[in-house]
Every structure is written in C-alpha cells, then in structure tokens.
C-alpha cells in the first residue's frame, strides 16, 4: 500500500481525513510513489487558525533568534543536501545534478534570510521639527500563504516560507500536488532546526483548497509561482479579498545571438538553456534570435542538440529527465505537431524519443524549429518542454523590437563581445532579468527575481529586499519629548510640525 503524504498542522505531521487523493507518480516509470490527500475544509481552516494563533507569539520573538533559526536550518539543509536532491529527483524526474542545483538555489535564499536583522532596519531622522523626531519600524503582517509549482520542488518553497518566517510572520504552504514529497522533508528539517509549532503549516490539494486560503479573512499575503491561467485567478481572487499578492507566471524567454559572439560558447549555452530540466523552467530559453550571419550557426546547434539524451535521474550521462506527467508530454508533443502544421521547419523532432529500460517514461527529445514567425502558436505560447524556436533578425534593433512586442518579460540574454551592443540591449529591452553572455540570468537572493509584464502580477517580487518589503509593513512614529512643559501651552491649529 502506498504511503499517504501527511499534512503539517500545528507542529504535527498528520494523516488527512479526506477520501479524495491523487497518486504521486514517478515520471520516468509511472510507478506510484505515494498518495496525496486533498485536505478537507476543516483541515485547511485548522492550518489557517493555527498559524494565526502562533503569530501572536512568533511576532514577538527577537529578530536575532529568528536569524539563528535560519542559521540552524541552512546548516541542516546543507547536511541533507544530497538526500533532498534524491527525493526531488524521484518526485519530479530531474537528473541528480539538476536536482542538487534546485536544492542549492533554495539554500542560498535561506542564507539570505539569516541576514534578516539588517534587512528589517527602519529609518530615523532626528529633529524634523523643533524637538520632534521621526522614525520607522518594520513589522510583520500575519499569516502568509505560499502556493508552489511542480518544477522546482525545493527552491520555490524556500523562496517563500524562510523569509516570511524570518520577518516574523507565520505561513501556510500548499505545495504542488504533483510533487509534494520534497516539501514534506523540507518542513521536517525546519522542525528539527527548532521552528515552533504552528509557525509553518502545510496542506495539500487543488483549486478548492487554494480558494479557501485566498478568501480567508485571516490570511494577509499570497505568494504564487505557476501557470498564467492559475496565476491570473489567484491574483484576481486574492486582491478582490484585499490580500497582498505576488504571482510569478508564464514566460517566453529570448536569447539574442550577435555575429561577433563566440560560436562555441553560444551553441553550448543554448543547448543547456533550452532543453535543461526538459525545458520545464520559467527562465528557460525557448527562442533564439540570431542576428545577421549568426543564423548560419543553426546547423551546428542542431548537431549538438541531437547528442543530448534524456534519462533516469541517476544516469550520469542523461542531459535531462522526463516531463512531469503524461498530460505534459502530450501537450508538448501537440505543440510540436502544431508547429509543423503551421509551416515551421522542424530540424529535430523529439516526439519519438525512447529511453532504454524506461519504456513508460514521459520522454520528449530535444526539438528545434526554424522558419518561425510571430503569429505561430509555438512562438506565441509557452511550450514548457525541450523545444527551441530559432528566428532571424537583420539587426540588433530588429531583435529588440521583436522581443519588446512579446507579452512576457521574465528573462532574456544577449551573447556578444561588444560592450556597446550589450549596453544598448540592457537599456532598451523591456524584460525584467537580463543576462549578458549568461543564458539564464536568475539573480542571487540578495537581489530579487524581477519578471515583468505578463510574467508577473503584483508590485513586489520574490526574495531579496523586495520580498522583505512584501512580507512586512512599515510603521512610522513621530515623537516629541518636550523638556519645557510650557512649550505645549498654546494650541497648534494646523497639521504642520513646529
């Protein structure tokens, strides 16, 4: 009998009373790893109310103590790094090296949270008026919620709850129902690090459970990463119920290749950035824009891509793993068929990919298209698979115009030896995260993850200083302590400070 994934309610891992479950499938074998229950309304409410009760005391825990919790937690995450990566690889399908990278990028955010005392400093101006000082304090919000996707089972939960908790909030995590096992282990280690009961809760489920979290009068802030349709629903519903909401959604990331770039560097970086993690990452390069004569490098790119083979997570020779589900596989294959139908040239077709020993895996091989136009479906929509679309621009200006017309603005990059071209690109491009000779420019956690346009809904981004602002509220105090009591014997009939 397969194990049931537990909920975390008020410090205890408990079995849900729900009869509604979903199998957790190994995407390389179709074997059932566990059953994830969809929490009952009462269980979701217990998690919310438990977090609200824990907030009453957690908000008053001294900031250095919260930082020490994060120090202990990051040490435990490092100690169990490879164990977490193995759980993640079985759960999600990533290769072991890719899974380790997923865990490590999450650890980096926890390390950033260790610095929370300096991040929570307010501001002071002395003597703004006669004997009057003004200063601001940064205070916690209350119960925060995180709704995380399947593609980064460690990194994205770790984007959210450590910083929220370090800022003095409590948290309810709703991990992807497709890959819940990594989140369970993350929270086991957080408890081991000394997290008090109730500070972090975990429930599982789908739309009904999410809607309950969004509409509860108790929850204050919602963080989400996932697809555009779900992100739009969460943003509209959350803001309608007066929540603070940040939603990271779809992408269509372009890499511009200038003719002066180093060809081998470009080809190697494009291969990894387009099909790594089976293309299932919101910062994957899905469109390569070759400027001028660099279009002649496409044949070599095709040859290099053809050598990349997917495989099981513990196969050191595998370039990437399976797609997360049969539905995702069918969706990607349908996009490939649509591209061919609409007139694009498919130089490399990965639909018939097989992996020896794993006949039931969700395999799609590297796929590359040329002769693509902006009205084609494979250009307009996010494929989220190992599919690269190649386009041609005569000039850098034409490439910039093409990319700025795209509704998404998550990430982009340019490969060039020209400082002038790079400077122009980073200044004119309407995309939130720009790489110069770096294909996937995900910033380290002391900056923030700054997607633009349809890739992000909200005002304050994930991790970095913006996340601290998202998870806190600023209180401004204006004070006078008069030395001479007579100074207050006349009424002030205006709002001016004197």
UniProtKB/TrEMBL annotation:
GO BP term, pick one: thymine catabolic process
Domain Aldehyde dehydrogenase residues, every copy: 13-477
Query: Which family does the UniProt entry place this protein in?
Result: Belongs to the aldehyde dehydrogenase family.
Pfam families named in the record: Aldedh
EC no. given is 1.2.1.27
Q: Which UniProt keywords apply?
A: NAD, Oxidoreductase
Q: What is this protein called?
A: methylmalonate-semialdehyde dehydrogenase (CoA acylating)
Q: Per the record's keyword annotation, is Protein biosynthesis included, yes or no?
A: no
As one GO molecular function, the record gives: methylmalonate-semialdehyde dehydrogenase (acylating, NAD) activity
In the record, what lineage is assigned to the organism producing the protein?
A: Bacteria, Pseudomonadati, Pseudomonadota, Gammaproteobacteria, Litorivivens
